[in-house]
Amino acid sequence: MPWPPIQKETPTISSLIPPDLYHPPPLTHYWVYLLSLVFVSLLIKHWDTPAFSFTHLFLHHHARIVGRLWLTVHAFGLRFASHPFNLNRFMQEKQSQAVSGPNSRRDFIKQTATVAATVATVNMFKTPVYGQNKAPSTGRVIGANDRITVGFIGVGGQGMAHVRSQKNDAAANNVELVATCDVWKNRVASSKAYIGGKCEGYDDYRKLLERKDIDAVTIATVDHWHTKCSLDAIQTGKHVYVEKPMTRYLGEAFQIHDAVKNSKTVFQVGSQGCSDAKWHKAAEMIKAGKIGQMVMAQGSYPRNNPKGEWNYNIDPQAKAENLDWKNWLGPVSKKIPFNADHYFRWRKYYPYCGGLLGDLFPHRLHPYMLASGNPEYPTRVVSIATKRVHSDKNTPGTPERDVPEHVELLAEFPSGLTLVMISSTVCESGLIEQINGHKGTLYMSGNRVELKPERQFAEEVEPETISGIKPGEDVAVHEKNWFDCIRDGKAPNANIDLATKVQTVISLGEMSERLGVACKFDPKTRKITTGDGKVMPVTELKPITYGWTDLS
């Protein structure tokens, strides 16, 4: 579903509702309406909680009352600024009724559409959720000594890496691998055989999620399926480990964020660098003020593949007959017949992946933002990219990639920190990993962190080198962190708050590069804007999502 049309200004209620519908009550009755308003506001606050599920029924039959309450607020001179559902439902109710007075029914419908666009900035678009007509399951309470049962959704290269890792450490982590799912029957059969025991195989992940004996799922699908699988897993009370990037597009990230916040799900994104202890040590030193005010940071994740990165081998056994290609495409707008190059080398193509921004950037962005000691949403992101080496020409038979071969990104944060990040598939030499402060600089490499003071603060800041920091960057350590948090209820290292902020940087970076603009972000409204406000008015951007171009 596309995002709603953008409004440059938030209109007042009186400008959107025909005059014959706007009748403020007598002044002597204001106290009654205010008390009612408090009651309705409490319902709104707890709208998504099971205890207040009856509010759906109440508002369905009393939309007129709720609308009149908000009109009363306007009579006091207040502007509309609240939960998006209430006026929306009021307008939908009114839309089905005849409208008299100076405005025609057609005009009123247009105004209704304007209201819907205005109030839809928080839940920007909806992905259908499996079992969404039911209250989210809470799952079972898992104690310190309880065994955790795990299912796997997506068992290709990375998915099988998780299967092998979790099977190897099953006894140490006290977990049991009980189910596997994939759209390709061969992968279902091979992963099921590898796990052994009573493991069951599925070609529909929803059947896996229906099992009440499964506590947690590891999701390693193609990027554009991360959101749907995660939301459905949360809805059924499962804990979630989803591979990076958390989502394909930004709106999806906020959907998952809000779902996790309204559940008891322990949610971990598969950026294992977040479990590398040196980044936590850096965060500790920064929070202790050892480098002073943060100024800038730089990092990189470069590769150089002469035959083109992600040109993986194609298994000739993968056919349309034994692979659910239609299901694999999922929300992708451009539906094409089965294409083995797209199936095995999907990171090269925009409909399924953001390329370097979706694959390698998260490996650095998550740890760097964690190391800041206080991860923030970006205020501004700019990205440029090139594709001039044309390395795909060295792999016979493969089309040239949609995505760039080299990407550079600059992000600004509210604290004043600026972050420079570079990734490449055609140049292996990268940047020195460092975070610069006003008084000193931290250098991170391997299992060490080094603090060097700025010359002007050499008397105040003591040089320091910490070596032998463990654990390092390891998928198994990251998985263990997830399992430990499922048992003790703590936030995992790549938790939903960090992951959503990282995904914002990633998605704004893709928008900046593909649209040729600088993207500004407001976390309170979740709006993206560009422009300096002087030469031209600040323009709100329609965030990219499925269907915005042929390459989506």
What is the annotated CATH architecture of the largest domain?
A: 2-Layer Sandwich
Question: Which residues form runs of ≥5 with pLDDT under 50?
Answer: 1-30, 43-125
Main sheet, how many strands, which sense, barrel?
11 strands, mixed
Number of helices: 18
Description:
This protein is 34% helix and 16% strand. The protein is α/β, with parallel strands linked by helices and 552 residues long. The protein has 3 domains: 13-118, no CATH class; 148-272, Rossmann fold (3-Layer(aba) Sandwich), CATH 3.40.50.720; 275-468 and 495-540, Dihydrodipicolinate Reductase, domain 2. The strands form 2 sheets. It has an 11-stranded mixed beta sheet. A 6-stranded parallel beta sheet has the order 3-2-1-4-5-6, sandwiched between helices. Strand 11 and strand 12 (440-445) form a beta hairpin. Helix 4 (85-95) runs antiparallel to helix 5 (105-118), helix 10 runs parallel beside helix 11 and helix 11 (250-261) packs antiparallel against helix 18 (496-515). It is globular. It starts with 29 loop residues before the first helix and ends in a 12-residue tail after the last strand. 40% of the residues are buried. Residues 1-30 and 43-125 have low confidence and may be disordered.
